[in-house]
């Protein structure tokens, strides 16, 4: 079941993000390293307060999460007009659910819940082949490559089912 996260969920969401950050680090990637150097619970609480964070829950266990947020300093570095838009960040799915379409369900849910009057944007490491081919399946169009990251914007008229 997908639902809106509450502050009570912050620790569980932070644990998922930390587990993924550690796994990426062990694979030799520096993606999400910053999450290992900050108070993740507080970061997730801020996300929940400032935007919309959704969780996938099964048997009262949070197994995945996605955040739809207003622009922050990260987005300012990647977008010339970052004040326009809503930004998808911190998509994480437990290893237990990999390959079961939960990420797709979360993405589709966020796209349905997002404000239609604002662009929906996201980014990924430029050399992440999986994500660079995954996001366009939802209607995201490549915009630019900056600082080692590719940026994408959702185009409703070009979207199709993943």
TrEMBL record:
It comes from the Bacteria. InterPro entries: Acyl_CoA_acyltransferase, Bact_Acetyltransf, GNAT_dom. The keyword Acyltransferase applies. Its EC number is 2.3.-.-. Keywords: Acyltransferase, Transferase. Coiled coil: none annotated. One of its GO terms (molecular function) is acyltransferase activity. This is GNAT family N-acetyltransferase. It comes from Exiguobacterium aestuarii.
């Amino acid at each position: 079941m997908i639902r809106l996260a509450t502050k009570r969920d912050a620790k569980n969401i932070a644990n998922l993000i930390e587990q993924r950050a550690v796994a990426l680090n062990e694979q030799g990637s520096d993606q999400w390293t910053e999450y290992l150097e900050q108070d993740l619970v507080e970061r997730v609480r801020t996300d929940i307060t400032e935007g919309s964070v959704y969780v996938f829950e099964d048997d009262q266990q949070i197994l995945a999460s996605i955040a739809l947020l207003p622009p922050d300093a990260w987005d300012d570095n990647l977008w010339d007009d970052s004040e326009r838009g809503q930004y998808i960040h911190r998509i994480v799915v437990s290893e237990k659910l990999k390959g079961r379409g939960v990420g797709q369900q979360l993405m589709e849910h966020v796209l349905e819940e997002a404000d239609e009057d604002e662009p929906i944007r996201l980014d990924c490491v430029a050399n992440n082949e999986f994500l660079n081919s995954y996001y366009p399946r939802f209607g995201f169009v490549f915009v630019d490559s900056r600082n080692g990251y590719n940026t994408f914007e959702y185009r409703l008229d070009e979207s199709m089912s993943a």
